[in-house]
Amino acid sequence: MEHRNSHPREMRRSERVWAYAALLVMLVLVLAAPLGLAMAQEAPAGAAVEYRDVPGIGSRNLIWIVAQQHLLLAGFVLGVPIFAWVCEIVGVRTKDPRYDKLAKEFTKLLTSAYATTALFGGILLFLLIGLYPKLMNYLTDVFFPSFLVYSALFLLETATLYLYWYGWDAMQGRKKGMHLFLGFLLNVFALFIMIVPNSWATFQTSPVVITESSMWAKAWAATWNPTWWPLNVHRLIANVVLGGFLCGAYAGLKYLMTTSQEERVHYDWMGYVGNFIGVFGMLPLPFAGYWLMREVYQYNQQMGITLMGGFLSWLFILQAMLIGILFLGANYYFWLGIMYRIPGSEPKYRRPILIMLVILLVCLGIWMTPHSLVASLEEARKMGGTHHPLLGVFGVMSAKMTVANLMILVTFMSFIMYWRAGKQETAAWAKAAKAVMGVILGLAAIVIVVLGVWGYFVPAITRIDKFSTTQVLIVLFVLLTVTPLTGLLMKSAKTTTEMVWGVMPARAGYALVLNAVMVILLMTLMGYARSSSRVHWHIYGVMQDTSPYAYSPALGYAAAFMSLNTFLFCLMVAFIFWVASLGGEKKPQQKETRVPVVGAGPVPVVRQ
Amino acid sequence: MMKGTHCRLLALLIGAGAGLMSPSSVFSQESVVVRAKLVQGDLPTDPTAAAWNTLPVTEFPLSPQVHWQKRIQQVTVKSVKVRAVHNNKQIAFLLEYADPTQDPADAAALEFMVGDKKAHFAHGQPMGQVEGGPVNIWYWRNDTPGAADMTAKGFGTLKKEAQQDVQAKAVWKPEKTKINYKVRKIALRKDAKGEPMKDAKTGDPIVDEETSVVEEEVTGVWRIVFVRALTTTDAQDAQFQTGTFPNIAFAVWDGKKLESGDFKESGSQKAVSSWWYFNAEPPMDYSVYLYGLVAVVLAAGVEFVIIRKVKKGQPA
Amino acid sequence: MKSSSLALKGGILLGAIFLFLKLILPLFTAPLPMSLIWLYLFLTTIGIIVYGTLSGESTEALLGPIFRFLSGEGIEGTTKMARLAVLVLFPLLVGWQTYSGFVPSSQPPSENRTIHPAPPGEFVGLSNPVPNTPDNVMMGKGLYFAYCMPCHGPKFNGNGPASDGFNPQPANFSDPTTIAMLQESYLFWRIKKGGVGLSVEGHPWKSAMPRWEVELSDDQIWKIIMAEYAGAGQKPRTWE
Question: Is A389 an interface residue toward B (CB < 8 Å)?
Answer without folding.
Answer: yes
